[in-house]
Specification:
single chain; 135 residues; mainly beta; four-stranded antiparallel sheet; two-stranded antiparallel sheet; 18% strand; globular
Length: 135
């Protein structure tokens, strides 16, 4: 099935869900590492594929990450208005230095998707709500 418009799952923003902050290795690009602030829970991570990549290229999360203990549900609130993204985890804004703003306004439309990491990873969601803002 082909959707109308310029929709591509490799173009857009990902709000990380990964307290370990694992950046997978790729010999051609970078080596694998853990606790990378741009890959930890709450960080904004652009998924590339655009001819005009976002500026800035992501935004790290704060430390410590305000997650609840293993087995407890976390509350994530992600607000997108134009080219700005605000991320709150358990009532705490988690982007280092405030909201993320893509100065190039790179991705004007696209999908809303939930975490689908890698084989063997387990992520669960409940009470997912999406609402349009009146701005």
């Amino acid at each position: 099935m082909r959707l109308p418009g310029d929709f591509d799952i490799k173009k857009g923003y990902e709000i990380q869900i990964d307290n370990i902050g694992n950046r997978p290795g790729d010999a051609s690009d970078f080596s694998e590492e853990n606790f990378n602030a741009f890959h930890q829970t709450g960080a904004v991570y652009p998924v590339h594929g655009a001819s005009n990549p976002p500026n800035p290229n992501g935004k790290p999360s704060i430390k410590p990450i305000p997650t609840k203990a293993l087995g407890q549900w976390n509350d994530y609130e992600i607000t997108v208005a134009g080219n700005r993204i605000k991320v709150a985890l358990n009532g705490v804004e988690v982007l280092e230095g405030g909201d993320y703003t893509d100065n190039n306004n790179t991705y004007r439309q696209g999908f809303i998707a939930l975490q689908n990491h890698s084989k063997g990873s387990r992520v669960q969601f409940r009470n997912v709500r999406i609402k349009e803002l009146n701005v």
